[in-house]
Amino acid sequence: IIDIRSKKFELFSTFINDGKFYYFDLKKFTYVDKGITAFGNIATNVASKDIDSNLIIRYKNSQFKKKINKKDEILSIDSSISSQKNLSLLKEFIDFDSDLNEWLLYRSSAESFDVSKIKFDYNLQKQNIVQDKIWLKGTAKNLSLKFNDKLESFSAKQAFVTISNSSLSINFDNPTYLDKSFDGSTLVISSLFTSPKLQIELKHSGLFD
Question: What pTM was estimated for this model as a whole?
Fold first, then answer.
């Protein structure tokens, strides 16, 4: 049993060494200064130092579920994240240019943004996320986007956010603009990690006053 307590963190875990693996059953880990708590299972190969883990991490109002595998200085991370209030969560994983950063931070809002699945590789040697390996699927409720300060907000009851093959796409459910229905509208940002290009396809049936 490992039981460590200090002003900065608390750790309580069981530990088993069978000669091939170190097994940690993490009952509780608390990083007091950051308000982070975690629990789950970690297994480390004694010879290769490869790591497999299945953790639940809580930070402020968010909960992260992570499955981590380490091999050849690459961490492969499989996670889910909940209770975000806008799309700015994405910038934790992607190096957006300044225009996209501003759009995510100041021109998007949501009642909630839940990432049901995100997969990415982390290069331990370079200490960065391998950008073009990111795969994400999430849902935003009551999403509001503002494409320009002079325009009214474009809203949707739900929006399905996907990152795949270096593109970010948003498919809107029951979207409206100026109280008009725009069902079938989509937003795509291609070449996300090199030179992003924004493409918006707005669909409206009927007369527009």
Answer: 0.67
